[in-house]
């Protein structure tokens, strides 16, 4: 499967144990099957880091082979009570992700986080929270939590070097909304190696 990671860096060798432990699915390397979502994240981190360029890293991940090799997968198919309990536990530092190597499901974006916060603060009930989550825009993320898994089954096939915001925009407009500039301008396409069965056009 083809996965994307938006960043201000080109990441050929991702690390599983870098980053915060209280994210949705714990401490790991996060990817998505939705290129548009990776682009939005790249734009966000570019502003946060005051960088003038961003990278869209494109990977091939052999999940079937990883599962056959014994790596443990947890998949959430919907914004249901199981997903909500997991996200809340993770954000509270309880590390419910420790027994898994791959976790796949929806992203707790800004709108979803508002619902979660209202639930945690007893403003709404769990039934009301789940009722609101039904209307959340579909999205997708995969977190890889095991370094051996990453090294064996995740391969970088191409990177796109983008100018998502100009230097002036990064300097003067970091507090404006990300939707203000949607003119993504690719300036470099860098294939990584020669991966059989995967062409550049197939990931554009």
UniProtKB/TrEMBL annotation:
Which Pfam families does this entry report, sorted A to Z?
Answer: DUF3990
Task: Please give the InterPro entries that the UniProt record associates with this protein.
Answer: DUF3990
Q: What is this protein called?
A: DUF3990 domain-containing protein
């Amino acid at each position: 499967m083809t996965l994307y990671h938006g960043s201000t860096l080109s990441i050929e060798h991702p690390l599983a144990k870098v980053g915060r432990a209280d994210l949705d699915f714990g401490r790991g390397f996060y990817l998505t099957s939705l290129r548009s979502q990776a682009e939005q994240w790249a734009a966000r981190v570019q502003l946060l880091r005051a960088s003038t360029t961003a990278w869209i890293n494109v990977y091939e991940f052999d999940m079937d082979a990883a599962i056959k090799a014994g790596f443990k997968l947890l998949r959430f198919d919907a914004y249901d009570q199981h997903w909500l309990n997991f996200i809340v536990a993770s954000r509270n530092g309880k590390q419910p992700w420790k027994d898994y190597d791959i976790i796949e499901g929806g992203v707790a974006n800004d709108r979803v986080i508002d619902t979660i916060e209202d639930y945690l603060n007893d403003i709404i009930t769990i039934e009301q929270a789940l009722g609101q989550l039904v209307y959340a825009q579909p999205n997708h993320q995969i977190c890889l939590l095991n370094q051996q898994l990453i090294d064996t089954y995740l391969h970088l096939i191409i990177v796109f070097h983008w100018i998502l915001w100009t230097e002036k925009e990064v300097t003067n407009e970091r507090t404006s909304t990300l939707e203000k500039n949607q003119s993504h301008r690719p300036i470099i396409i860098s294939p990584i190696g020669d991966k059989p069965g995967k062409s550049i056009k197939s990931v554009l």
